[in-house]
Design a protein that fits this description.
Elements: H1 3-21, H2 33-43, H3 48-61, H4 65-70, H5 73-80, H6 87-102, H7 111-114, H8 122-133, H9 142-151, H10 161-174, H11 180-193, H12 212-215, E1 232-243, E2 248-253, E3 263-264, E4 267-268, H13 270-281, E5 286-290, E6 295-299, E7 302-313, H14 320-328, E8 335-339, H15 350-361, H16 363-366
Parallel strand pairs: 1-7
Antiparallel strand pairs: 1-2, 1-4, 2-3, 2-8, 5-7, 6-7
Bound molecules: iron/sulfur cluster (SF4).
Iron/sulfur cluster binds next to α9 and α12.
């Protein structure tokens, strides 16, 4: 069998399997560029079980690229909550604004054009171009990397950029010319459901007869583990400024550090807490309460042990004391007041939600 026939055999067998076994996902019903774009960005690093309901709600609330381009930050945050990695939502919106402002709302029509959209990388461009425009361009994510590295029995360096280029070249060499979009989805689906990280279901695999790792009995070695950075332990304090008479809480968009570009409580180190205490010494209207209890949270390579501090504003005569305090500490600006009862609905990160839970669970300790 020549090389070309063999490549076709990969595609043929994979697509025959996909036609029988693919999962009926909402965005696969009718191909729509906007839906494909949104769902692919949502699916990166998030499981389909979480994505499916969020996707349906997202496209219901923001049915067009114009709606996405003009939606306010609050709405976007709410629609994205639970999906994590909020930077992806911001990039999606940036892309929508670009399409509306520079392309008059017309979607790019090819892989290379999609690569020019802010926030759109190789993977997203390949998915959209292959599914929506039948362009023969392979997409490479973690699932595809795993499948290809097993087909070729690659047990070394597949995660570096040169390793990823090898994976991409191979995927491009076997992609179906007739059904490139289905081929890409089939590769990802095979990786997710059959060629699993551990205990791949090789006996159910349509590519078994061409898989070198299966033949050599080394599937567990391919691909090699991603090089891991050790997690670092971090102590972090969340600052809850609570205007007791009106039962409102100050929130702001964090501009740097952990969870930058998300709205929530100011986060600070132990050293910065000392600055808070110093700043409060001369401000009688503001009282500091250190909440009992703690929370833990993991953010990319950081193991956070967190505590919360409440600055209780006892008089409501004016906002000046809080504004002054906020400014002196260099806390993120602007801040705004949210009713305590509604606070959970305004937060998008799970860390902030843990802080609120701690606050509400211990409210009786300091409400007098
Ligand atoms: Fe993966 Fe096994 Fe199929 Fe090889 S035979 S591609 S290891 S599921």
């Amino acid at each position: 069998m020549d090389e070309c026939q063999s490549a076709n055999q990969y595609a043929r067998e994979l697509l025959a399997w996909y036609d029988k076994h693919h999962r009926p996902l909402p965005w696969r019903q009718n191909i729509n560029i906007y839906h494909t774009w949104v769902c692919e960005v949502m699916s990166q690093q998030t499981t389909l079980a979480v994505v499916i309901p969020k996707f349906s709600e997202f496209v219901k609330q923001l049915p067009t690229v114009y709606d996405l381009a003009t939606c306010d930050e609050d709405t976007l945050r709410q629609l994205w909550s639970g999906l994590g990695y909020y930077a992806r939502a911001r990039n999606l919106k940036k892309g929508a604004v670009f399409i509306v402002e520079h392309l008059k709302g017309r979607f790019p029509q090819s892989y290379n054009e999609w690569l020019k959209i802010p926030g759109c990388g190789l993977y997203t461009a390949a998915v959209i171009a292959s599914i929506c425009f039948h362009e023969k361009v392979a997409c490479v994510d973690g699932n595809v990397t795993r499948v290809v590295s097993r087909l070729l029995a690659l047990s070394k360096d597949v995660w570096s950029s040169s390793g990823q280029a090898v994976i991409r070249d191979f995927a491009n060499s076997i992609i179906s010319a007739e059904r490139p979009g289905d081929f890409n989805q089939a590769m990802m689906e095979l990786g997710a459901t059959v060629c699993r990280k551990t205990k791949p279901l090789c006996l159910l695999c349509p590519l078994r007869s061409q898989c070198l790792a299966f033949e050599k009995n080394c599937t567990e070695l391919c691909p090699p583990q991603k090089p891991r950075r050790d997690a670092v332990d971090v102590e972090l304090f969340a600052l809850i400024v609570w205007r007791k008479p009106t039962d409102t809480i100050a929130l702001a968009e964090r501009t740097k550090g952990f969870l930058a570009n998300t709205v929530g409580f100011p986060l600070m180190s132990k050293l910065e807490v000392l600055e808070v205490k110093t700043a409060l010494k001369s401000r009688e209207q503001l009282q500091l309460v250190e909440l009992p209890g703690a929370f833990t949270h993991n953010i990319t390579h950081h193991r956070i042990s967190g505590k919360a501090l409440v600055v209780r504003v006892v008089e409501d005569s004016n906002n000046a004391a809080v504004e002054d305090f906020w400014q002196i500490l260099g806390l993120p600006q602007p801040f705004y007041w949210i009713a305590n009862q509604a606070i959970a609905t305004k937060l998008s990160t799970s860390l902030d939600k843990k802080v609120v839970k701690l606050f509400h669970n211990t409210l009786s300790c300091y409400a007098q």
